[in-house]
Design goal:
This protein is mainly alpha-helical. It has five helices and no strands. The protein has helices at 2-10, 14-45, 55-81, 85-113, 123-138. It starts with a helix and ends with a helix. It is 81% helix and 0% strand. The protein has one domain.
Length: 139
Amino acid sequence: MLIPAGTVFFDKGLADIGVLGAVLLVKAVLLGLLYNWVFDKFDARSGRVSSERKLPGRIVHAVGFEFTLLVTSVPLYCWWLNITVVEAVTVDLVVTSLVVAYTYLFTLAYDRLFPVATRFRSPISMATELRCKSTAFAT
């Protein structure tokens, strides 16, 4: 979806925009691994467990990662597309917004097409339910 739009908007060939997309994708994956590793190490040194991160910590993590992606993508956009820094930031914000919107709509459609048959029940609630049923049979 973004690559054909990029070919029209930037007057570049499909291969040019496609390779840029692939480079940005690989960069995002590798940067994600490194960023999460560093963030988890920082949490551990601060005495926090990353899986128990509170809402403010999760917001800092997400915003920090997106900012890191932006900072590392802008030079690539400038060089590859021969555009200014302001144009590159705009392109990155538009692309990021479209990816977020697509992800939301895709998961919404998926959840509607393939609904989960039952609600998730924690092991504790299932054990309580079993105990109540076994007590009812005992009396």
